[in-house]
Structures are given as structure tokens and as C-alpha cells.
Amino acid sequence: MTTAPVLSINDELLDEARKKGLSIDGDNAYKRDLIDCIVGAMALGYQNANPPPTGHWLGQFWDIGQAEGRRAEQDQAQIRQQRAELERLRTAPMGVPDGFLFVTHEQLERHATTAWECPPQSRVVLVSSISRLHDKNAAAPSPIAQEGADHE
After folding, report:
1. Which domain of life does the UniProt lineage start with (predicted)?
2. Residue 36 within any structural domain of the chain
3. Which of 33, 54, 70, 109 has the largest CB neighbor count within 10 A?
4. What is the count of structural domains for the chain?
5. How is residue 47 annotated by DSSP?
6. What value does the CA radius of gyration of the chain take, rounded to a whole number of Å?
7. Rounded distance, CA 146 to CA 122, Å?
8. Distance between CA atoms of 38 and 12, rounded to whole angstroms?
9. Are 24 and 41 contained in the same domain?
10. Euclidean distance between CA atoms 100 and 150, whole angstroms
């Protein structure tokens, strides 16, 4: 013996609405307009423009957009600061620590004997300036520190 499923009042109302062509599942203008309002409020909040009246239901979405806009501005400011710092470091003159000699490849080729005439405990920093001539936008090459050999 099978029994028919028991329908609640809500199920009966939904069935009647579907028979009349109404549905909560269908595409309708009300939902599109509602979503457009929410997206618009978030966009205006992002731009910090035209806030809704106090207590308006779109105010919370405007606040979300405004918070996202502030976060994006902070991220952009941090990126600009990091770029400026990288550019400063890239173009800053390279310091040579005490006990090191600053020697370019050209100087080393011209004065190969005098470049190595240094105390054995000193170190030599070799920097290639050839790459700087070819590409001025390239980052400065890393110095290669070598232990001074005992040349006598």
C-alpha cells in the first residue's frame, strides 16, 4: 500500500505559482534589478562617491565597496613605495667595505699586475661595467668577492 506524498502549504503554493508561470527559480527583472543595485552601490563605495542615505539597505554594500577601495589604494601606495626603494637601490653607488678593493674588469685588464699587488688578506670586488653599457635599465650586477691569493 503506497501513500501519496504529503504536501505542505508551501509546496502547494509553489506548485500553484509555477502553474501560473511564476517561479523563484526563473530569470526575472526583479532579481536583475536587485543585483544591479548591489553592484552599483559597491562600485560607488569603491569610488567613495554618492553615499546612500543613512540607514538605507544599500549602505552596507556601499561600505563594502569603500573598504575595498581603501585597501586597493593602500596596496597601490605600498607598490609605489617598493618600486621607488628598488629604483633607489638599483641606482645607488655601490659601497665597498673596508678591506676590499673596487676593481672593474677594464681596470683589471689594464693593470693586471697592480690590481693583485695588495696585501694577501685583502679582498677584490670585481664589477662588470660592460653590462651597464649595453643595458642601462638592467639592475646593477652583483659584486663577486674573491679572497686575495698569496702573490709574491
Report:
1. Bacteria
2. yes
3. 70
4. 2
5. T
6. 36
7. 9
8. 32
9. yes
10. 15
